[in-house]
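Incident review: delayed structure delivery

Summary: a single-chain prediction request sat in the queue longer than the usual turnaround. Root cause was a stuck worker, restarted by the on-call engineer. No data loss occurred. The affected request and its eventual output are reproduced below so the record is complete for anyone auditing the incident later.

Affected input:
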Amino acid sequence: MSKVRASPSANALPYKNPHAKPTSPLLSATPRRKGIYIASSIAVYAFTAYGFSLYTTLLAEPDHPLPFQDTDVTDRYHTTAKHFDADVSSTENIWGITNLRRRLAEQAKGDVLEVSVGTGRNGVYYDLEKIKSLAFVDQSGAMVEIARKKWNSLHPGYERCSFHTQSAMDPLSASAMPKAGFSTIVQTMGSCSTPTPAATLAHLGNLADPNDGKLLLLEHGRSYYDWINWILDKAAARHADKHGCWFNRDVGRILEESGLVIEKVERSHFGTLWFVEARPGVRGGGKLVARKEETMEEREEKGGQ
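Output delivered after worker restart:
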């Protein structure tokens, strides 16, 4: 009796079937699906890298007393300024923060004030055709000097800008302050580093044009999820001591206490990253006219419809 060899099943696993060729999901995917695979891979890598960074921060043994929550740690930027861009560039690119900076700065128009300018990471994205003047403020002289050099390299001969090494709470020079107030005020990652975040935003609201002034904010803080907040709280003191930033602050509460009128809020990165559009309001409590928070994904879906 002759033996009959069964033909390989179409459903056989590649390692069970010598005639089957393993197929990469990425190679066989449609262009749109390839984009999803790539984006997902980047997201997993970014989350893993971020988690590892937090984990190593938690394990690090400090050789000196750590600061108490919300202590002023802005002096750390004097020493981190030189390598700040190298430290954050890859992370910001992977997490999409660079694109958010671009989206924020491209909205700026008229007389513009940017506080917490840092090393000037937003400078390349301003549309100078829409801008009358620019004033850049940061408390760290080392950061301001780097921002100034970047700007002069990007826009040689541009004279309608000024750089100020001072607290955002200090009065600006008369030459930098428009009579009607600023048309646009920009702050990216500033509420994490100032010891008085709500008061600072309230002050910025007072510097804006009361009629049509706009505040554009990109901030980071607490998450939607308790387990992430637990990690942030545990790592906060070490992170602040090293980077000069309290990354576990309640941004929503800060906005409500600022007195600004919050017109738009988008949250991403598990709720830790806030993209905010606001205008001057009445002191004594913020008014959330756009209280329903829109995620980045929801905004993209609307744009595609």
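Verification: The CA atoms of residues 195 and 271 lie 22 Å apart.
Action items: add queue-age alerting; document worker restart procedure.
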